[in-house]
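Take our chain:
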Amino acid sequence: MRTALLHQGARLALSIIVVLMSGLLLGGYALYRFDSFATGTFRPDNVVAVGQRPDPGGTPVPAAAPPGAPAARPVVATSTVPPTTGPAVSAATRPAPTPISTPAASASPTAASLAYSDSPLVERLRAGQRISVLLLGYGGAGHDGAYLTDSIEVVSVDPASATITFISVPRDLWVYIPANPDGPGDYWGKINEAYSDGVGNPDPNNPADTYRRHDSGGTLASKVVAQVLGIPIDYWVSLDFVGFRQFIDALGGVDVTVETAFTDTHYPNNDDADVDPSYKTIHFDAGPQHLDGERAIEYARSRYSPQDGTDFGRSRRQQRVMAAVVKRLATPQAVTQVFALLDALKGHFYTSFSVGDVRDLAGWAQERLRAGQRPTTQSGVIDGAQTGLLVGATAANGEDILLPAAGQGDYSAIHRYVQRLLDGQNP
């Protein structure tokens, strides 16, 4: 089940889901532990995911700023160079972002056939219809701006061509955030605020309310990202920093090849500035590195080095960490660590996938794997330096932001870029 989905699903969050699902095969106490974890983590099986297409072939309309929406906040000092919020980075030292092609993990199908139902998800896959999943990484409780998403990535799976596409979206992109029941909304702001607005203030003592709030955040973020990319988002998955660290440690660390050596003198000493507002210096040498949870999150989060300190550089590093996690999950030892992984993620990991969705997706994927179908992968980053899709600007309140090169709220060029990428063309 786990290895099948690694071939046919996604790199990080989907792999996590399916490894944890292996608890269902162990029975007894393992099944009890998994059920305890799944409650308040996965969408209930009898609830349709908001944004999921209930009818194969249906195309939901991405959210957009409606007539009468608040006027765009004034933007000044527009430039053609993506902004940084740390030390200045010269054009000579700023690496140009490039698409990353990551080979799919190599593994063999599981011995036992996995049963799955003819659910709407399976019907869509059999019809060759694309499934897109939004992956979100956020600070979490005790972190300044707890639910602001540091990492925003879309994984789009095309079963017809057996192609998996990864698209990174910069957190500083200036977008319209629609009104929602659990947060302010109805304003222009950074795209990383959407999940936070939807989550609002969950009750930590009420698991049902906590999941409902995260579901609201995931749904709102999905609508905003769909608007930007011009494609529907079917599911979302979120993971906070604590869960990320604990998950990497439970796996025994990951192996990453650092392409560019860098030093960041402005890395926070603590996730919560109220605990420790000071900074420390981190450094990574170029070459192969074995990273524990803390080093992995430092590598993935660093923003202020002169060598690789842009949001686009960080997006590439996050993609490499996700590829390393998937490689680690492809080992037989990963299934034996199910209990440790459950403990690491409980209360830090949420998704609009239901347990039934994952079961069906894993069974269908195993069937394709046994038929000899192996997917290819491709990656792209919505950026300014290489594609010219975005430009740097300063909002009226002084925030460094990114705008579409075509103008605020005009995502037409981004839509064309994404469509060419999905079609396998050179975007």
Notes: Confidence is low (pLDDT under 50) at residues 1-14, 20-30, 52-64, 76-111. The CA atoms of residues 254 and 325 lie 6 Å apart. The longest helix spans residues 207-229.
